[in-house]
Amino acid sequence: MNHLIIAPLLLPAIVAALFLLGRWRARWIGSALSLAGCVALVLIALALFVTAYGGTISVYALGNWPAPFGIVLVLDRLSALMLVLTSVLALVVLCHAVITNLDRKGWHFHPLFQFQLLGLNGAFLTGDLFNLFVFFEVLLIASYGLMLHGQGAGRLKVGLQYVIINLVGSTLFLIGIGMLYGVTGTLNMADMALRISSLPHGDQGLARAGALLLTVVFALKAALLPLHLWLPRTYASTSPAVAALFAIMTKVGVYAIVRTTTLIFGADAGAVAWAPAQWMLPSAVLTVIIGFTGLLAARGLRDQAAFGVVGSTGTLLVAVSLFEPRAITAALYYLPHSTLTGALLFLVGDLVARHRPDYGDAITVGPRFASIGPISALYLLAGIALVGMPPLSGFIGKLLILTAAAAHPAAGWIWVTILVSTLIGTIGLARAGSILFWKSSTCDEPLRPAPAQVGRKALLPSAALVALLAALVLGAGGIVAYMDTVSAQLFAPRNYIEAVLGRQAGD
Q1: How many CA atoms, within 13 angstroms, populate the side-chain half-sphere of residue 10?
Q2: Cα Rg of the chain (Å, integer)
């Protein structure tokens, strides 16, 4: 076994435990420890990415108990991709939090941040449905604390709503798992994929109901309409750096939909085959419309970024809901783009708010401030990326989605939705940018200096996200080719089953 596979779980757990065991009097020590943990996590994720790059599916059996009797972690191309995306995003967001002193508003920030990474990495690596639920709960519990970091009555009210909604989702998750366990007798995803295709006729309806219930739970995590209402208020109410990290959380729901549908409920699932896909496309189309309409109507940059996350996740799910290899390839390319872009909008909004303390992130004319040129450029690039205009990666991602949908019966609806939402998003972002930067820059009052805690180094994390988006463009050919191999591996579930259960089980 490759013991490095468990490192993305152990490392953040150990770093978080070190914080809980000793509260560092010199806070820079704690910040340095957390940053070092994130750097190490990036290196581990890249090493695992190299391991999975050639198509090898690696299995780590905890306690050396073989599947399906024991808990297994499974590393394939998709999970490796998600680990790299999570670790890189976490490092950038943590740098922003440290530079802006957000982490100094409470002792709990760094351990909660690390526990959040533990939950995310575990969800991407687990090969067991119940442990997927467990890691969902770990990341959600950590997110409750992170969301309230910095305190405030409004944040507490929205946080309570967030907790209640996710408790309902967790309850439904357990019910769905119980239904599937009742008819298949297993919670290992590879083993369940084998058993579900041979269910007796009387159990197929219950299995289908369990599959749909799981999909509803994952759609709630992904903020798919009509289950999206929690996201705009939650993301807009928490601190921008935390919201930037939360940009990956909707992708956990998308990942779970893709993983369970292609592996368990795919072409070999008999009467349950592709059951989750049958209602997703209309809901995804409406999510795109709601997201970009909300962006147009937003009165603050955090609201705008939150609705941007809803709209871009809806665009991603439009491609996913087609459940064919070319569409999944397009979705996989668009997934890191939408995650990084959502995070970038939140960080840029935070920079604006910190330079205009009297106005915050409100989209209204305010004074000129130091660094208005670089920040306005970052906002422009973030807007171009979100709406999918050239030359950034959103244009390539949307073009891939439109091309993949061209032969689908609903191609007309998909094309109209994506193109019209692009126009709406462009208008909304252009309006906000002109108010914030163009009108502000023509004010007669003198330039205001940056606050003491915000210097030019605060621009670096946002600039790093722009560089990553540029890298998606410059390496588009190779990245799309890799996403093709990820898609091909997803649509060949027998290889996954054989890796987990042994070659005889896959026959």
Answers
A1: 8
A2: 22
